[in-house]
UniProtKB/TrEMBL annotation:
Pfam families: DUF1657. This is DUF1657 domain-containing protein. The lineage of its organism: Bacteria, Bacillati, Bacillota, Bacilli, Bacillales. It comes from the Bacteria.
């Protein structure tokens, strides 16, 4: 398994986590819980954006594995 495919797999997992957090945020009834989910969601979004950049860079470095 190439580094590129591992990063793509991680990116997919992060997107899934982000979707789950969105659901939990919408279902949360306590203000503190909702705020905590939103804060974690922002961190996950930053990680997702960084991973997306890495996917693009790695696809340039490993074009044979697209």
């Amino acid at each position: 398994m190439t580094v590129g495919s591992q990063v793509k797999g991680c990116y997919s997992s992060i997107k899934s986590i982000e979707a789950s957090l969105d659901i939990l945020t919408n279902k949360a009834q306590e203000v503190d819980s909702k705020q905590a989910f939103e804060n974690v969601g922002q961190i996950i979004e930053e990680i997702k954006n960084d991973l997306q950049k890495q996917v693009v860079e790695l696809s340039k470095e490993e074009p044979q594995y697209k």
